Predict the structure of Battenin.
Amino acid sequence: MGAGPEKKSVAIRNMISFWIFGMCNNFAYSVMLGAAQDILKRNSESATPNVNNTEHCVEHITFRDCAPASAGVVLICNILPCLIVKLLCPFFMHHIPYGVRHFIICMSQTASLMVTAWANSVPTALLGVLLASFSCGFGETTYLGLASHYSKNSISTWSSGSGMAGFAGTFSYAVLTDDNLLALTPRNAMLVMLIVPISFTFSYYFILVRAPTIPAISATKPSTWLDFSTPYEYVKDYQTIHVLINLQ
């Protein structure tokens, strides 16, 4: 009788984890899209004053407040690394344990927000966009593969979180930077959003219950950080794998 509630609590924890995975993995990607205009103005804010920044109408406009590059540059930087990662991952992904992948993804997302926040030029800010795209692409291949070790509800909760990321990322950036709301600078807004990769890291190591088909790793044993053995060598066949998954 006691196994029922315990099994249900494990299932709930796993579903919450995958929802967080979907939301946090795509969060920085969405933020970079919402912050595209601010990213492209990084090297022009201090170089050229905005003489038309006034509450009154300007009769004769003598200055154009525009970015030196098109917003398409941000879009390309936000898509290209993600595409490359997805093309290359099938050739080496299975050698990297899920725990190590998750750490790389969270650190990449943290670095993307910090680099973009402290960037003083457009190329440096675009480097942050590239890191966000890398973490998003690497995360998609990681967590969708991870879902195969859990129940079928994992995919649906992941999808729900992914859909929420688009709204949460752009909406939170708008609220944080809007002059009529919190009125933070783009830099401070990016730094506030570091709470997302922190929550992201916590969800895998403390909320998700590790499936028996996932090899364990240890931070103090570098030999567990890469796995060149036969995947799931302790499982005899695919039928056994599905039995283990259904027990989750």
About this structure: The first helix runs from residue 3 to 25.
